[in-house]
Amino acid sequence: MFDPRQLQTLAAVAETGGFDKAAKKLFLTQSAVSQRIRQLEEQLGQPVLTRTSPAEATEAGRQLLRHYQQLLLMENQLLQKLSPAPRQREFTTLAVGVNADSLATWYLQAVTPVLEAHDLLLDVVVDDQDHTHELMRTGHVMGCVSTRPVPIQTGVQHYLGAMRYLCLATPRFAARHFPDGVDHAALARAPSIIFSRKDAVHGQFLRQAIGYEGGFPSFTVPSAQGFVELTRQGVAYSLLPELMLDGDLEDGRLVDLFPGQYMDLPLYWHHWRVESELSQALTEAMLDYCGRHLRQDKVAYHASVGESRQNP
């Protein structure tokens, strides 16, 4: 059997990226952290971490991290049954990967009932929706919201729904940068906004909507609220989720640069295949909330562009 303290130490090093940082997190000496990892590797007969900066889990280490996440879930479930008095329980912390737009719109509202009903803390790791999948594969999170429909091996996925994005700008910005309408020459000069250099959604939309394959100047803003505010200030245009629009189109603060065009991004909830009431509760809460607030038309491809509709 694996020593839970060694698994906890492995998780701390993988999360922080270093033995010294893991030691501070666990209130241990760096020597104690190194000893636990060495003992774990001796038991397995292979390394569980790379000796790089930052340190990363090997394939064996990733499997152990997944195992540790599942243990936390099952221990929480057992504790709920054996210790009914709330004051005797300890919080369980679960790491989840969530894209910024979901976090800013529906995610917290969806999981709040579970947080209120259980002694649960969430360690939310934010990344691009195309890359949260990797956080789960490497063992950093027990579940993730992702655009990828194919589940990870030993994992399962649930379709949540689609978030619709519109390409918007202020009227003044549109008049300045697109006086003759949106064309390839104007797109090559007009400043836009992307989440990170890994963000391919903006380019994909332009390619599908107007056949534009070239580059475009862009701000890098890793914040959903930052996207909205920078667009409203009229310094750039961007793809914005309709869930974040607060009457911007109706009151004329923003205009649609591609009337009738939109991008639907399908979202899936992935988690490890483990029988846990807590994991099931999180899944059911998200499915229930998203079933009422996200568009439920199945999206055939990773992203699609089509004619805009008014209602989900």
TrEMBL record:
SUPFAM superfamilies: Periplasmic binding protein-like II (SSF53850), Winged helix' DNA-binding domain (SSF46785). Residues 2-58 form the HTH lysR-type domain. Pfam families: HTH_1, LysR_substrate. InterPro entries: ArgP, LTTR, LysR_HTH_N, LysR_subst-bd, WH-like_DNA-bd_sf, WH_DNA-bd_sf. One of its GO terms (molecular function) is DNA-binding transcription factor activity. Keywords: DNA-binding, Transcription, Transcription regulation. The keyword Transcription regulation applies. PROSITE patterns: HTH_LYSR. Belongs to the LysR transcriptional regulatory family. NCBIfam families: argP, PRK03635.1, PRK13348.1. This is ArgP/LysG family DNA-binding transcriptional regulator. The lineage of its organism: Bacteria, Pseudomonadati, Pseudomonadota, Betaproteobacteria, Neisseriales.
